[in-house]
Description:
This protein is α/β, with parallel strands linked by helices. It is about 45% helix and about 20% strand. It has helices at about 5-15, 30-35, 50-65, 95-105, 105-110, 125-130, 165-170, 180-200, 205-230, 235-240, 240-245; strands at about 20-25, 45, 70-75, 85-95, 115-120, 135-145, 150-155.
Amino acid sequence: MNVSKRLNRLALMVTEGSRLADVGTDHGYVPICLCSEKRIPSAIAMDINRGPLERAARHIQEAGFQAYIETRLSDGLTSLRKGEADTILIAGMGGPLMEKILSRGKEVLATARELVLQPQSEIDRVRRWLSDNGFRIAQEDIVLDEGKYYPMFRAVHGHEEPYSEVEYLYGKPELQKSVEVLLDFLQKNLEARYQIRKMLPETESSRIEKRRREVEREIEGLEYMIKKYFLLDSKVAKAHERNFHECPFE
């Protein structure tokens, strides 16, 4: 079974001994991986589509874990009952869809101990939802897999410390497990914003000026994150000094 770096890292975020519910399981690789390592006692692999669920069932059978992993057709969390899972894993989908699944499954979430989430887009919306609904992010991680960055986090019940706007976008670096990967991610995002700003035409168009202001705010936020959390850390700064000498921090 060839498990990607992204799925491996997600599996590592699941607390050992937890009963897992994997929402949008697709191939069923995460629960199979965790069961094979004896890190979880059981799992429910769920998907809204029969095709992926049947594929997951075949993989589970081939691995010999039918007694430990149940497959279940489910639209989000609708087929999961309260108290059935300690960890709920939702990954590989856009932020708005993830937010919708979480909102519709609040009763089930109330009985789970933790959420492991990996939104593919609009990650700030998911962080806001957690903060607004009685969850706090306990751990952040980010992995570079086949040229793409995948932020992910583990959330538990509790009060969330206030987030700035840029922290909703990129997370709190003090919670980050893979600091240097996050730094590379931020740097590449900053360089991309510099290029966008450079390419915006000089015009009196209100639409262009609005976009220019948006890009400037994004640049300010990224520069703030890098300066505050990384350039002040001498070890990280030394490791990445070649990446920063051209950045116009003012």
